[in-house]
Design brief:
Distance between the termini: 36 Å
Radius of gyration: 18 Å
Strand content: under 5%
Number of domains: 2
Largest sheet: none
């Protein structure tokens, strides 16, 4: 699976230096980081009692309202760009003008 992630300049630079210093790929660092993050919520700073959840962005709310968030309607297929476009076109055609 291919995943595109947007990083701010400081984080991208830190990732680049880390990979060069250790001779590893960005993919490996991201894979290992996600494995730790998802397997141990407390260590990753999530699910900590008293911690407030992150605010939901307006863009996420828009995608959610358009039916583009979640995997329930994906039929088991990946949400790649073509699948998202097809779903968006499908939703637009059904919405009243």
């Amino acid at each position: 699976m291919t995943l595109t992630v947007r990083l701010d300049v400081a984080l991208a630079s830190a990732l680049e230096r880390y990979c060069v210093d250790r001779g590893v790929t960005k993919s490996l660092v991201v894979q290992e980081s996600l494995a730790v993050y998802l397997s141990n919520p407390a260590a990753a700073g999530r699910d900590v009692p008293g911690r407030q959840p992150a605010a939901v962005s307006p863009l996420f709310k828009t995608f959610e309202a358009a039916g583009l968030v979640g995997t329930g309607l994906g039929g088991g297929t990946s949400a790649d760009k073509s699948a998202v476009r097809a779903r968006a076109v499908q939703r637009i055609r059904r919405s009243p003008v």
